Amino acid sequence: MGFQYLFGPVPSRRLGVSLGIDLVPFKTCSFNCIFCECGPTTDLTTERKEYVLTDDVIRELDTFLAPHPQLDFITFSGSGEPTLHTGIGTIARHVKERFPEYRLALLTNSSLLSDAKVRKDILDIDVVIPSLNAVTESLFRKINRPNASLSPEPIIDGLIAFRSEYTGEIWLEIFIVPGLNDTPGELDLLKAVIRKIRPEKVQLNSLDRPGVLDWIVPSSASDMKRIARHLDYPGVEIITGAESRSEIPCFSTDVLETILQTIRRRPCTMQDLARITGLHPDEISKYTGILRERNMILEKREERGIFYTCSKQAGNPDATPVRRMPPK
């Protein structure tokens, strides 16, 4: 059977084999980050509500987990901000009570952690991966392009408060945008805040697939090492791409071939491929990542988003690579 709110399992760069739970409609988020790999936010909001029925999500989880599949994590993630959903705590508690063998993770942009109710809702989750990409107000707005009600100081206070209330692991993510938040001054501010939050890990991330703006490029390996040294924190690690996505049990050569056959006929966006295959956009992105690694697809930015086409190696003699332009 198909699932409406679950996707995967997918090979995650940080969480191994992960079953995703998507609790909000596509691109419902409190941020409209310039680097977002899911595309521009279409509903920029901080309103918490039951975007999808909590009972329906629990029903899907019960069905999927009944045979006790092998998973490293069940992850609240997807194409928007999971903590916007008021039922996240109920769903987390249900999984821990009925399927205690599974570890839960949450990917969050941290925007709602100033709310004590939100912090309480996520206490049962084993690993929380909050992001913090900037400390200064101007840079926070430039990178995250948040809902107008949000600012960095309450978010940082919320992260510090969450640390004092939470017994699980915090893996603080910093997404590096070259030329913006990798300067010595901004890194000094992040360094001071990290010591107040006291996460188990600080994960430095950079672009892995196309973001919203085409001038944003991945940070170089040498720059990432420089940033890690500058932050000088025992738990700093640099996130790299999954080395062997095609070798894990949830990898499907049928899905890979379906994507290739589809884009041989016409260029498609990630959302086009999701509609055609019935897979979640996050799941599609893992397969397009494999195809990029094998030099079998090309990406071209158009008005409607990033379009995928086959490369010459995959049988398209007219294909020409498209390069992203650096910032001016």
Which tags fit this structure?
328 residues, alpha/beta, TIM Barrel, Arc Repressor Mutant, subunit A, eight-stranded mixed sheet, two-stranded parallel sheet, 12 strands, globular
Describe this structure in words.
The protein is an alpha/beta fold and 328 residues long. It has 2 domains: 6-238, TIM Barrel (Alpha-Beta Barrel); 252-314, Winged helix-like DNA-binding domain superfamily/Winged helix DNA-binding domain (Arc Repressor Mutant, subunit A), CATH 1.10.10. 34% of the residues lie in helices and 18% in strands. The strands form 3 sheets. Strands 1-2-5-6-7-8-9-10 form an 8-stranded mixed sheet, sandwiched between helices. Strands 3-4 form a two-stranded parallel ribbon. A hairpin with a 2-residue loop joins strand 11 (297-302) and strand 12. Helix 9 packs across helix 10.
